[in-house]
Write a structure and sequence with these properties.
The chain is of the alpha/beta class and about 300 residues long. The chain has one domain: Alpha/Beta hydrolase fold, catalytic domain (Rossmann fold, 3-Layer(aba) Sandwich). The protein contains 8 helices and 8 strands.
């Protein structure tokens, strides 16, 4: 089923239900419980299979379905400002991504701030990636994806892997990535029904542990050297307050010689992909991400390319 709720109705639901939960004054632990509760009944593709596994000493949910190839993997890093979000909150997105990519999706339950500030999330993502390699998956059949803070984390992971000499994956998919925690170019907008700068500022403070260097490449990868990054798909939404930073990222990646496929989704908002199975536009957006990852792995496997820089 591709769509149950019309896009304008879901926009109203997000503004009235999700936005208050994600207020900056709501404690992170309460946000986590409420978000999991409101996301706990996903509409998944038929015969989706869920299993809890261990990746680098952290739990992860392995999401797969009929026809998914076990010699491939997508490491998925969920969003939530580094302070909330989980495999439960992102189960619908992961289920539809696994179906469209034809690949098991591993949604990592990485440690969250403020209890575990930077570099905990990057450490956990790197350990999970190494665990997938150690399990026998060829990096040419491994891709990484993430949304919002998870998109920023995915790019930070690429920086960490490159600096430590670990082979990079075949491709990277970034959904509305949060890549500049300084918020220098972010302003509240009436069109974004989900995000406010006050929330992002609180999340940045929690994740950085109060450190002043928010421009560090693993915290704000917009300031990283993007040379040698794997091919990227980047999605944004025309209504989100992170749009300017996302498009700066695309420009900088292209200037660094990175192959980039960029699409700005019209009449949508930050990570509209979360509603896959409920909203047809969300399902279609996730299918596009899955097709990119599937095609990247197929192409890389045929050509033997390896992004080990």
């Amino acid at each position: 089923m591709n769509g149950i709720i019309p896009l304008p109705v879901m926009r109203a639901i997000v503004r009235l239900s999700f936005r208050p939960v994600l207020g900056p004054r709501v404690p992170a632990r309460l946000q986590r419980r409420l978000l999991d509760l409101t996301s706990g009944f996903p509409v998944l593709p038929r015969d989706t299979r869920l299993a809890t596994v261990d990746l680098g000493s952290r739990p992860a949910e392995r999401v797969s379905g009929p026809g998914t190839a076990d010699n491939r993997a997508v490491l998925y890093l969920h969003g939530g400002g580094y302070t909330f979000g989980s495999p439960v909150s992102h189960r619908a997105l992961a289920g539809h991504l696994a179906a469209s990519a034809g690949t098991p999706v591993y949604v990592l339950d990485y440690r969250l701030a403020p209890e575990h500030p930077y570099p905990a999330a990057v450490d956990d993502a790197a350990a999970a990636y190494r665990a997938l390699l150690d399990s026998g998956i060829d990096p040419r059949r491994l891709t990484v994806a993430g949304d919002s803070a998870g998109g920023g984390l995915a790019l930070a992971l690429m920086v960490r892997l490159r600096e430590t000499g670990i082979p990079l994956p075949a491709a990277l998919a970034l959904i509305s990535p949060w890549v500049d925690l300084t918020l220098a170019n972010v302003r509240d907008g009436r069109r974004d029904p989900l995000l406010r700068t006050s929330l992002l500022r609180a999340c940045a403070e929690r994740y950085s542990g109060g450190r002043t260097d928010l421009r560090a490449p693993e915290i704000s990868p917009l300031f990283a050297d993007l040379t040698g990054m794997p091919p990227m798909l980047v999605h944004s939404a025309d209504g989100e307050i992170l749009l300017a930073d996302i498009e700066r990222l695309v420009e900088q990646a292209e200037a660094a010689g990175v192959p980039v496929v960029y699409r700005r989704l019209e009449r949508t908002w930050h990570v509209v992909h979360m509603h896959a199975g409920l909203v047809s536009a969300s399902t279609a957006a996730v299918r596009e991400v899955g097709a990119f990852l599937r095609n990247s792995v197929d192409h890389d496997s045929r050509t033997g390319n390896s992004y080990n820089h």
